Hints:
Blueprint lengths: L7 E9 L4 H10 L5 E4 L3 E7 L5 H6 L7 E9 L4 H8 L3 E3 L3 E4 L11 E4 L11 H13 L6 E5 L5 H8 L4 E6 L2 H13 L5 E4 L9 E7 L2 H14 E13 L3 H10 L3 E8 L2 E7 L1
Parallel strand pairs: 6-7, 8-9, 8-11, 9-10, 11-12
Antiparallel strand pairs: 1-3, 1-4, 2-3, 5-6, 12-14, 13-14
Amino acid sequence: MKSDTPIYIELAVAVSPLEPFRDLFIAQLGAVGFESFSETETGFAAYIIKDDYVASAALEQLQWEGVTVSVEEQEIEQVNWNSEWETNFDPIEVDGRVYIRAPFHPEREGFEYPMLIEPKMSFGTGHHQTTHMMIQWLLETPSDEADVLDMGCGTGILGILAGMRGAKSVHGIDVDTWCIENTLENAERNGVPMSAALGGSEVLEGTYDLILANINLNVLLADVSHYVNALRKGGCIFFSGFYEENVSTLRAAAEALGLTFQGIKAREQWRSIKMVK
């Protein structure tokens, strides 16, 4: 049974070469339950509740041929997450049109879509590249009167932008209760009507014109058939959260289910693809 005041495990990770492997390892640890990350000069610190920590699972995520990694582990009392976020979350600008900031960042004029996002635990410093590409897809794709699904909604950034661009309805799904609360708070903060449900593909209901799936490769491959079933004829899916070497695997799985490849985006080691039904 978990205690009322959780004890956390902190992993202090040094990585050489630092880039792009810091972000890669952060993303992989996020997929095995680590809740927050703090970047350092030599790598990063990663935090997870002690009751959820499996050392062997964590260390498996920190291996890459030609990369030197050292790890120091310690138990700590409950983390001041707000301090961690404010230290590590930078504003995001995309193509001179979107400006995403937290309440502790200054406002800036001249952006078509200014967004105010409280990052909290559902935002990770290792995922800016994947979010950036998804935002670019959204800026290129008309969403007027579209019904939009944001799978793995996190902070709700993508669904909120779709709503700002005229979507008829926006629905988010996430496996983390905290993310559902954060999405709904951020949607209200930005004046965008948005619903959200707790769970994975098993809670997916209805059909959509546009599906946003910025998660990770294993989840995408496991759930792609559910996404295809929920996509209307002529609808579009944006996939993100995987690396260059994974593109062919995901594309083949989607094409086998009747989707057609439409394009790809690259940002450092990350890739994102667009497919239509």
